[in-house]
Amino acid sequence: MKLLFPLFFALLICTTNQAFSQQKIALRKEISERSVPSVILNNFKKQHPVVLVTGWYVTHITYWQNDYSSDWYYGWYGHRTVVIHTYAKPNYYEVEFLDGPGEISRSIYNVHGYWYETRTRIKGLTMEIYEALKASEYNGWKISPVMEKLRSPMWPDEIYRFQVSKGLKSRILRMDAEGNLIQVKEELINKKELLEDKN
Q1: 179, 131 in Cβ contact below 8 A?
Q2: DSSP assignment letter at 141
Q3: Distance between terminal CA atoms of the chain?
Q4: Model confidence pLDDT, tens digit, residues 131-163
Q5: Which of 124, 175, 130, 132 is nearest to 150 (CA)?
Q6: CA atoms of 10 and 99, how far apart (whole Å)
Q7: CA distances, 76 to each of 18, 72, 93, 124 (Å)
Q8: Against a cut of 0.90, is the pTM above it?
Q9: What is the dihedral of CA 171, 176, 179, 180, to 10 degrees?
Q10: pLDDT of amino acid 36
Q11: Res. 128: pLDDT tops 90
Q12: Which of 62, 158, 40 is nearest to 107 (CA)?
């Protein structure tokens, strides 16, 4: 009898876990272009008539990072936490495409075809940004090779997003093309990663 209760309890946990895992929704999954609503396809093709599409995705989440800012950028994003909402039905469609040589972009649309933003991986920053960094407290900081240009219909300018680091200090900076600082986000550096970078 003493063995029967733990066995029953273990069996109950296993069946409950299986039931929950079967209801789990993939938060971002690849889909065919035929599955994309026509309003989204039409809006995307108006914005980018001649690009090479590498994939379409559907997402069930709204995700934001912990960002702090001021001015118009803060008004657009405000204070954000990591995952805010998950939905039972898809709520956003993402398309990845090649627009310029070696630059992969990702545009995000809602189910009604509204364009939220486009993020483009870029190889370098504008000369104005480099000059502004030299004249700032970030002079001499290492610039990460991972850089993005962000565009949104609600922003007055394109934003350049990149990471800088010096010793154990790390920041994610957002600047406009003229080198004006829009936002600074402090990052924690993993000491193990720092040692691996030095080797």
Answers
A1: yes
A2: P
A3: 59
A4: 999 999 999 999 999 899 999 888 888 999 999
A5: 175
A6: 54
A7: 41, 6, 20, 26
A8: no
A9: -80
A10: 94
A11: yes
A12: 40
For residue 178, the 8-state DSSP code is T
Domains of the chain: 26-198 (3.10.450.360)
Residue type, 96: E
DSSP state of 111: T
The CA–CA distances, whole Å, from 61 to 24, 31, 82 equal: 13, 16, 11
Question: 182 Cβ partners below 8 Å, 6+ apart?
Answer: 69, 71, 73, 159, 174, 175, 176
Q: Give the Cα separation of 120 and 139 in Å (integer).
A: 25
Measure the CA–CA gap between 124 and 160, rounded to whole angstroms: 10
Is 119:150 a contact under the CB 8 Å cutoff? yes
How many angstroms separate the CA atoms of 196 and 57, rounded? Answer: 34
pLDDT reported for residue 82:
47
Please name the residue that has the structure tokens 């204070």.
Answer: 79
Task: State how far the alpha carbon of 143 is from the alpha carbons of 102, 122, 133, in Å.
Answer: 19, 13, 10
Which residue, chain included where needed, has tokens 């936490």? Answer: 81
